[in-house]
Amino acid sequence: MEKITNYIVEEGKKFSQEYNKIEELIKRFDRIAVFRHIRPDFDALGTQFGLATWLKDNYPNKEIKVFGDNHVVFTPRGLFPETDKENDEWFNKEFLAIIVDVGDVKRIADPRFQKATLKVKVDHHPETDKVFDVSVVDTEKAAASELVLNMLLNFKGDYKLTKEAAGYFYIALAGDSGRFQFSSTTPHTFQIATLLLSTGINITSIYEKMYEKNVQDLEVTKFILNTYKVSEHGVAYYILNEADLERLGLTCERGKENVNMFSNIKGINIWCSITEDVTEPCYRISIRSRNYVINGVASEFKGGGHAQASGCQIKDLTELPLFIKALDDLVIKGN
């Protein structure tokens, strides 16, 4: 285990100045709030609760809060605790804000983070807003939790990583790495996973809770398998319009839940979910790939994200052929 810790510390040396500053700030502030993005996934909630739990374990006399909507669209109900609810008065006193897993300020779940005395961000998304007092961004990390753990292990103090905190961090790491199947997975990712496993967490139980399904989910799967399409160059996609969502008992946010259904199918190079959002109005798109860098195409269609996992939108289905062609062209070009 010492070799693993040394490897992680060595990996984090490029952020040593930022890590030292963040550790100093954590020691300085008696009130700390952890934030993440709206419509949170496994990584957002796992990193948020993992970090908050770590802070509570190591600084029991500090007031630690977790803010953001209680969202169970992309994570099963009961997998994470309820977030904290405080009125505006709480934010009027001095506090440190730590923001994780969000590159765009507009997507931070609770806008009251702006009232923080100082703001820290630790993230693996490309940085779009430079409004933080300390910022650590590493887009090569598979998950925000991977980078946060690298930071915690590079702190100079004598800290503990409890089983509870490790469980949340593992959920985050497994979720954003596709259970270590995405190309963003690196030796560092596995080193972090090994460290988390050493705390005694039960990954069988964790996976059972993360990916639990019900009969309604089978109906959604059936619909997708009966309606999906694949382009000439292996771009697979399914469409869920407002009527489909209502019939299947889905919200717009849940439309992308099954996007990775096509991730291991020979002949499919890129796969997408296309879901109508009548509140905009638009069709929201989630894009995934195995070997193709897709965030460039996403940026052309009002979106962005990671190299193999991005999101974007089109105004209506008349724009769909142009979008699919852009992805087909990626495959034709070999990237």
Q: What are its keywords?
A:
335 residues, alpha/beta, inorganic pyrophosphatase (n-terminal core), Diaminopimelate Epimerase, Chain A, domain 1, six-stranded mixed beta sheet
Structural summary, described in words:
- This protein has 335 residues and is an alpha/beta fold.
- It folds into 2 domains: 2-210, inorganic pyrophosphatase (n-terminal core), CATH 3.90.1640.10; 216-333, Diaminopimelate Epimerase, Chain A, domain 1 (Roll).
- The protein contains 11 helices and 11 strands.
- It has helices at 2-11, 16-28, 42-58, 144-154, 163-176, 187-197, 203-210, 215-227, 242-248, 295-300, 320-333; strands spanning 31-35, 63-66, 96-100, 118-123, 134-137, 229-230, 235-240, 270-277, 282-289, 304-305, 309-314.
- The strands form 2 sheets. The protein has a 6-stranded mixed beta sheet with strand order 6-7-8-9-11-10.
- Helix 1 (2-11) crosses helix 6, helix 4 (144-154) packs across helix 5 (163-176) and helix 5 packs antiparallel against helix 6.
- The chain is globular, with a radius of gyration of 20 Å.
- It starts with a helix and ends with a helix.
Specify the CATH architecture of the largest domain: Alpha-Beta Complex
Shape: globular
Count of spatially separate domains: 2
**Helix and strand composition category:** alpha/beta
For the residues shown, what is the average pLDDT?
93
CATH class of the largest domain: Alpha Beta
Computed CA radius of gyration, to the nearest angstrom: 20 Å
